[in-house]
Design brief:
The chain contains 17 helices and 41 strands. By secondary structure, the chain is α+β, with helices and mostly antiparallel strands.
Amino acid sequence: MEALNLSNVTILPTGRVTFSGLSSGIDFEAIADAIIAAKQIPADRIALEISENATKIAEYKTFRDLLTQLKETLSTLHGAVSVGNTQDIFEAKAAFASTSRSDGTAPTAAANLVGMALTNDAALGSHTLEVLNIAKAHKVSSDVVASETTALGFAGTFTINAVSITANATDTLQDLRDRINNANTGASPTGVGASIVTAGSGQNFLVLTADKTGAAMTLADTSGTVLQSLGVLTGAAAIKNELQTATSARFKADGLLDIDRFESNLIGAGSTLLNSVATAAAYPGSFDITGNVGLATINYTATDTITTLKDKINLDTVNTGVTASVVTDGSGVRLVLTEGTQAAITLSDTNGLLDGLGVDNGLVLTRTSNTIDDLFAGITVTLFSAEEGTTIKADVDRDLTQVKSRITDFVNAYNGVKQFINQNTLVDDTSGEVVAETGLLFGNRTLAQIQAELGAAIGIGVAGVDSNFSILAQIGIEFVDNTLQTDPTLKDTLEIDTTKLDKALLSNPEDVRKLFTFDFSSSDPRITLLGFNGATTYTAAGYTLNVGAVFASREDSQTVVSKTAEISDAVNSFGATASGTFNVNGVAIAYDADGLGGNDDTLETLATSINTAGIAGVSANVFEDANGTFSLQISSTLGALTVDTDTGDLLASMGLTVADYAVSSANINGNPDGSNDGSVTVSGRTLTATNATGAEGMTLLFTGTATAAGITLSHTAGVGKDLFFDIETMLTPVTGSVGSEISSFEQQNTTKQERLDRLLERLAFDRDQIIQRFIVMETALASLAQTQSFLTQFTDSLANNN
């Protein structure tokens, strides 16, 4: 028996097993494969095209990423309008702080006294600070407790800042600590944390510390004597062991003066003037005080103290109107002089005592926290330590380091894009033919177009700015010397002359800013720039804006305590006394205010009445402000809002005032009356230039309350502005030059893949048909062979019989 060649076994899609060439001796598997291979050449060609397109798509996506990176570096260099100028690197600020003293003592370094964090909103200039006290958190302790883990043996309920806490007799010091800390969580925390401090063996203390500075905690036993038994409170319910008093931060800022308040430096309590003030000229001596009433002379001796000096001043209060007091401040005291009617106090010191005490009228500011963000706009000040008599001077200037870093990022990103283009346009210098290193996008028109656009933006100067700062080369950003480059992809890239750039930034920061950014100005301060786009075109003549009629678009009532209180309620609402109607744009709104209770309107029902009246474009709502008080707001989106003709007294009680205005029409370079000519679209106070003029895309906010004509708008468009919007257009999906290339190749591949799938499906079908035909042939041959064998056997039998 002949061995079976398993390579000729075929399993058809139907699951049927066949053996190639058993009857014919023909390897029809190989023949079928050869036939299909010939038919598959077009499919292979399509697969290759799909692969090549995929590679090009990957290359274009790499190029897209490089352009995106370049655009990102320009996001803060092109003058974007943003809240707080956060998107304008030229508005970045830094503070340079120093300290000084007038008494010859060496001051502490500024960084040890204060910290400053600046936003781009901070104004250029200088500020001074003198930190008198930093804010401290209230801290108290228990008496000594022998063990942390032994039951304390007392039970009851106590409160911390009005939050109730229950202790059990089996509680240990640790348990009590945990109960207090658990109460400082959730929606109504105590604001006080607890810890155990072990001073030594058998010496444990429960310490309570307020979470926030500047506010004293309130403690009370409400059932039992838990806090008294611990030694936190005395029998008189007063704090027994106060480790640290809650104090507010005290400081002086920018030399502000308080005309009706003077205070001294910190003096030791009970010390005589001779011991406290070494610089006093002579003893005995005198000084004059003049207040709103008149003048008095105060005599003193060397043995006087701050307290006795205070008493002498107050003996003459009737003559001066000035009151003296002694204020305890930490470990010392201060002499404070005040004038109750806020009239100016004048001091005349002939013997030097007041100078020795440091008495002045510098305005002392207080905050409960050491982090202060409401002192200087755009600056958060953190107080670290107090040093009376030390002046901290903080100069706020542009953070040129950030500007230089961003410009460097821009140059590097531009070079990345340029090197990619160079790689894909690389040819042999002699033959002009592509070389092995040439990129896959060689000959692509999109790359050539983008290269031309980038080159134009970099090479063409900026119009309307100082001619000495109109091109990048003038601030040290220049094209490399191509003759010195060994790497051909570095051709026409940029390099920075750091010395030249540093000089330009230090000496002419505004000119460097204008070279990069969109720089806008208006002849009318009521105009604010909100935005612009790539179509906003520079013109030397500028643009003339005319604003038409301005009307009230929203009115607000005065605030009240409750939105559900009746409008006749004078405590929680407006206190209206008579029912009636008022008109909103001519539509009558009825209201009840009879004061009888239960039937009067509220703020909410008034808003509902207006909203259900069907007044075109008018709506009303109840607004809650940050203080938790409420007001009624009536707005119109379709024209002027008029609220009048009250038959009762509600409008007078509400005190409606205009809260916002809207512009009816505006134009650019049009009729001075501001009539609509299609050059400006209006939405409320926002004005947007259309494509009717070169100002297209310029968006403005008008804050005026009346018509305005002849407002001159001027701007220049820097390198950063043009490049940013050029790249934005290139990157626009589908329609942008890069996006369209990617979309085109992806669409091609989708179509080609569909065609390839159909071809492969057809080839699989054809192969199956060929195999089936060979099987039929094999079957027929096998049948013939069987018949031949039978006939042979039959004839042989006949021959044998004969």
